Amino acid sequence: MIICHCTTISDHDIHAAIDWMRAADPQTIITPGKIYRALGKKADCGGCMTLFLDTMRANAKVSVPAQLQNLRTAITAESDHEGRRQSHRVSQQSA
User: Fold this and answer.
1) pLDDT band for position 21 (50/70/90)?
2) DSSP of the chain, one letter per residue?
3) Does residue 83 form part of some domain?
4) pTM as predicted
5) What CATH number does residue 28 fall under?
C-alpha cells in the first residue's frame, strides 16, 4: 500500500527500513526522520504523516530498547534544574 504519494513510499518500504536499521544497530531509536533518510527521501507536504506513523508503530521492531526506556524519569529524578545552579536567574540570586 502506498503511504506517501509525494515521495512514493509504501508500507513495505517503511518496514524494510525499520528492519534494516534494527539489524544495523539494535540500540537505535527509530524515528520518521531516520526512516526517510534510510530510504533516501525527504518529507514533502506532511499529509501522510498520520498514516506513516501508524504504519511505523505497527512494526514490532520499532519499540525503544529496554535499557533506554524510562531514561528521562531517571534523569529528572536526579535534578529538576537541568544541570544549572538552582538560582540561575539574576532575579533569583540572593545579594
Assistant:
1) very high
2) -EEETTTTEEHHHHHHHHHHHHHH-TTPPP-HHHHHHHTT----S-TTHHHHHHHHHTSGGGSPPGGGTTHHHHHHHH-SSTTS-TT-SGGGS--
3) no
4) 0.68
5) 1.10.10
